[in-house]
């Protein structure tokens, strides 16, 4: 059975690939940037919203992890705001590239914190069955978001 941690790590690795590829596209190829940015935006938004609705919602139910869940929600909101800003900038400009690198750093820091700290705290709260159930809920939530 695949649990929530494995599902989130899988999403994190996919996002890291897109971030890296997008970071290496020259400003002279805005069409390719458009395509990859659209994919990145969709992936990040679906991931963050499904993660908030399932994993972090479950963590908010426990006093010892409530602060981590609120912090993660704040970080997700920041990423959404940055995606919105990037959507309105010309992808062939240095300003877009600088804002993108800021987004990339924020996402990487969030992933690192989540995988190195929050997962271990969550594993003290959720048993294997609960982690599996949260993983299934995460998949269902992402599928629902993909249909919207």
TrEMBL record:
The keyword Nucleotidyltransferase does not apply. Residues 69-117 form a coiled coil. Keywords: Coiled coil. Residues 4-120 form the Hemerythrin-like domain. Signal peptide: none annotated. It comes from the Bacteria. This is Hemerythrin domain-containing protein. It comes from Thiohalorhabdus methylotrophus.
